[in-house]
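Retry 2 of 3 after timeout on previous attempt. Resubmitting structure tokens to design endpoint.
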């Protein structure tokens, strides 16, 4: 979670359902030596998101546009992306952070423009945490409910495997190509 929220695209959609699956299996959590539980997984997910978001916020606040202009392409952030985020901030205000936390891809990068905009840190944290809670809960719950039955889901969706994989590869390739080209 920290990695994704620090503007390094590692989807939480892979990590959080696994945490839910770990809860369903009663696996032992390595730090506490206690079995995983739903709320512990949610708290860990929100905490990880918060730490990564703070790192990205600091990059925006202290490095600003010059840092992003120089190194942003390595984490797929372009000047165009920053312009778009700043327009969203101007139009919708700080609540942009709350809603962005629930949107794939956008949630990874929204902290940098919030830092550049010098959004008050306490408000940034409040909106980030409140925005992270619903999607973290949903993804952990999905893994918990699916549990060991993910094979059943896989069988039900067998025909879509290659189509979905091709669409994901194409979307990621297009996204990377557009950002590298800029």
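Retry 2 succeeded. Sequence:
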């Amino acid at each position: 979670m920290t990695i994704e929220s620090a503007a390094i695209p590692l989807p939480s959609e892979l990590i959080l359902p696994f945490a839910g699956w770990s809860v369903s299996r009663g696996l032992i959590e390595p730090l506490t030596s206690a079995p995983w539980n739903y709320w512990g997984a949610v708290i860990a997910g929100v905490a990880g998101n918060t730490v990564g978001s703070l790192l990205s916020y600091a990059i925006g606040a202290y490095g600003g546009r010059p840092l992003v202009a120089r190194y942003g392409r390595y984490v797929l952030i372009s000047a165009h992306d920053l312009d778009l985020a700043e327009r969203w901030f101007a139009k919708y205000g700080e609540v942009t952070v709350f809603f962005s936390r629930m949107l794939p891809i956008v949630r990874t990068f929204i902290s940098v423009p919030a830092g550049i905009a010098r959004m008050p840190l306490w408000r940034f944290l409040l909106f980030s945490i409140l925005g992270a809670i619903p999607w973290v809960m949903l993804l952990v719950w999905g893994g918990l409910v699916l549990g060991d039955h993910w094979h059943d889901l896989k069988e039900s969706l067998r025909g879509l495997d290659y189509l979905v994989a091709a669409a994901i590869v194409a979307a990621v390739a297009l996204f990377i190509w557009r950002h590298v080209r800029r």
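Attempt log closed. The two ends are 28 Å apart (CA to CA).
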